[in-house]
Prior knowledge:
InterPro entries: Homeodomain-like_sf (IPR009057), HTH-type_TetR-like_transc_reg (IPR050109), HTH_TetR (IPR001647), Rv0078-like_C (IPR049484). This protein is mainly alpha-helical. The chain has two domains: about 1-55, Homeodomain-like (Arc Repressor Mutant, subunit A), CATH 1.10.10; about 60-190, Tetracycline Repressor, domain 2, CATH 1.10.357.10. It is about 80% helix and about 0% strand. It contains nine helices and no strands. The protein is globular.
Amino acid sequence: MAARRRAETMEENRAKLIAAARRAFAQTGYAAASMDELTADAGLTRGALYHNFGDKRGLLAAVVNQIDAEMAERAHQAAAQARDEWEGLLIEGVAYIEMALDPEVQRIVLLDGPAVLGDPSQWPSQDNCLQVTKRTVERLIGQGIMKPLDAEAAARLLSAAALNAALWIAASEDPEKVLPKAVEAFRALATGLRQA
């Protein structure tokens, strides 16, 4: 019973720290976020942060993972409205690109994330998205909708195109102006993989 309660408390503390960090990183950015203020906001100590995440970088990784999972779910929900799986694949990619306009996504995932955590294509959350895209590509190839290419190669290129479009939008001086260009190019690239 005590072990279960301890595990629950640890999980609650992790959730509090992630929520506080998410607010702080969204408002001031990773570099300016104070660990003392962040832990005070969560009602915890720096020791709890170190125990659960190792350091501030580990906490950012947890926040990015949470937001990335939410982004994947939002993109998947958008794709579920499509009339067929091919259109769903395109809608999912476009939805991911459009999320680059969300200030929280922009700052935490697309700007601070790569600066602190390195290449986003190497993040565990991105690998999960890649595997989902690969399974969709395999089905579309099996149905003769997509060209008979290596499914992993096609999935990696589609994922990279969406990710890099989102990174471009987030880093641009005028994200609203860049968005339609990025979406148009993504759709054109993806359509090149479709059977004639």
